[in-house]
Write a structure and sequence with these properties.
globular, 71 residues, alpha+beta, two-stranded parallel ribbon
Length: 71
C-alpha cells in the first residue's frame, strides 16, 4: 500500500485542480511500481480535501488519532 501524507495546496491556489493533478500523477507512478492500494490522510474538518478524495474514488477507511509529542 502506498500512502500520501503532508501534501498541501496553498489557499490562493486551491480550486484549480492542482491537488487532483498531483494525486492522479502519483497514482500513475505507484501503479507502475506495482502497488495495488493507495491511501491518503485528511485532516479533521478539511471538507475540501475530503470532497477531492471522494471525487477521486477514495472511500473513508479507519479513523486514526494523530499523536504528537514535543521534545
Amino acid at each position: 500500500k502506498a500512502t500520501w501524507e503532508n501534501c498541501y495546496v496553498y489557499q490562493g491556489y486551491q480550486g484549480r485542480g492542482i491537488g487532483s493533478s498531483l494525486y492522479k500523477a502519483s497514482e500513475d507512478m505507484v501503479k507502475r511500481l506495482g502497488y495495488r492500494h493507495v491511501s491518503g490522510f485528511v485532516e479533521n474538518g478539511n471538507v475540501r480535501a475530503e470532497r477531492m478524495h471522494q471525487r477521486l474514488g477514495f472511500e473513508s477507511g479507519k479513523q486514526y488519532t494523530w499523536m504528537l509529542k514535543v521534545l
